[in-house]
Fold this protein.
Amino acid sequence: MTARDEILAGVRRSLGVTGHEEPRRQAVADRLARPERGVVPARGQKTGAEAIATFRKYAGAVQTSVTIVSGPEQVPAETARWLSANNLPARLRMGADARLAAMPWDATTLDVSHGPSAGTDLNGVSHAFAGVTETGSLILLSGPDNPTTINFLPDNHIVVLDSADLVPALEDVWARLRAETRSDPLPRTVNMVTGPSRSGDIDRTIFLGAHGPRALHVIVIDPDMAV
Amino acid sequence: MTAAITSPAFRENAHQALEDKQLQAVLGTMRTGFSVKRAEAAAALPEFEALRDSARDIKNHTLAHLDLYLEQYEAKVTASGGHVHYARDAAEARRIVADICRDLGAKTVTKGKSMISEEIGLNDHLEREGFTPVETDLGEYIIQLRHETPSHIIAPAFHLSAAQVEQDFRRVHTQLPPERDLSEPVSLLNEARQMLRQHFLAADVGITGANFLIAETGTSVIVTNEGNGDLTQTLPKAHIVLASLEKLVPTLDDCAQMLRVLARSATGQDSSVYTTFSTGPRRAGDADGPGAYHVVLLDNGRTGMLGTSFQEMLRCIRCGACMNHCPVYQAVGGHAYGWTYPGPMGSVLTPSLIGVEKGGHLPNASTFCGRCESVCPVRIPLPKLMRHWREKEFERHLTPATTRSGLALWGFFARRPWLYRQATRLGAATLALAARGRGKFAALPFASGWTQGRDFPAPEGRTFQAMWAAEAGKRRRAGGKPGAKEQNP
């Protein structure tokens, strides 16, 4: 008997089932076909300006800085401003995201290179798939557009978020991935990022910048400039 | 064979811990640390109690259908290009991991934080097989340098001071200038970041644990604050996930429910910094990510808990809230428990996994104050389960002879109420007389185990039963039955 067969047989023996019971199979099939949303906190259930303000509040509470611009054409200048304000070199790593590529990086003095990070980049920029109002989190998908290494290796991570992609809760991210049929299979990596890296393992005190980025800056594109 | 076990020596371990001044200073910070932050996070979310119910129900549903969800999960992992390996016990799991590493020609293996890795004693095995395992969670890295085991399931180096860490870094990081300044704790963090970055980039295989496995999509989930788990699983050629069977949840939405109670219960954060959902290896066209994805599913005694009262323990999501709130853990720390899992959850889980013969002392290390159950995000009745172990220990004649004969003596009197009353009256009167109005004893014959650490309160002369009888007499004389007023509005 293989380990697999023995373990499954053991589970069934302990539960007193055969695995062929139709009501059990139906219960599992129903649950998978129609996922239950469960309890979704009211605090993220906001729209428009209120949603952006709430996102900003929870992102700020975990040391993420947030700036709002009115259009994608302003993202390079805001990126250059933030790097300069923090005394960081004017160099930037990014993937192949078409939305980022269409922005006027040439209008700045930024030295932009493309591809995944190899561990020597100080600054990286990504485009988020979504933002989560409830926790001030960013959702990033792996792939050629926004390589996962850019989320973790550079010291400073800049993330561009379209205000139209702000959703109340993580459940809404799943709904969108299912609607876009990107949930079967999911991308290799879905990152939910809530603030810059930190650790409490030394002296039971929280310090930022353990292994991932020391700083996280979000640029929200909001055509209404509502906030 | 699993990680080294010293649980049978719990009493001696606890004595040593109580004498350890450095440890006691650290444990003293617990009351103002995790538990206060958890209380604040729970209070700030009106839906928190409803989410605990939801989390409990999701786990109960999953465990009742575990065979079917395992089959679904495995099919989805396979469909996304990954491999599922089943391991009946620790030895089988270690062998599977070592074989994968060998097939890939691996030398360096980076590791994210995994309690399953601790449970199966993986690092020692990998070293014996010629691999170099490097722990990358800062706390795990520190205890690996010290050849220790974690003292807390979410804060492995909880028992150490910054000064101790500085000594270890100076001892091990000999390639750095000896005159460097490490007086600020943040400089220790920066040094670890610098040293571990080399390992991340050089590693051939990355091993992580899993906080959850999702049947709907064949996804494994890790929750970290440092980002070490992500670098561990993204950079090498292969990603190996170590997980026990009960980590399954049905859907992505179910996982979202669990995440809301996990971080709040563990550290008081609304959300951990990095919650990462991994499905299969890198895809064609991906710019990065591991080329291979393996999941090792460990049983190691868990199927035997299903269908028993200990099935409830399999809901555990390893947040650590029970130990953060436990007066016994706060007194002796995690190492005294003698195996991978300390605190109340360990007191229930350890006897289940290594046997009541070895782990039977642990369920006795409880004051039954009930705080662990009151903060458990999945509402595990930990005190009830510890009592179950005490009963089993007694049934199997594992309880020490002195305890058994003491209980037998008490039982003799308890079955003879008149004799019991006489004996307790005599005892109470004698002790009251001996105390001579001081109200307490600093020392008592046969009770040195108690009086060494604190005073023994002296009875005031009458037994509880005698006082109760006198009170009942007074009430009767005052007229009317209790509650009579309410019955006649």
The radius of gyration of chain B is 27 Å.
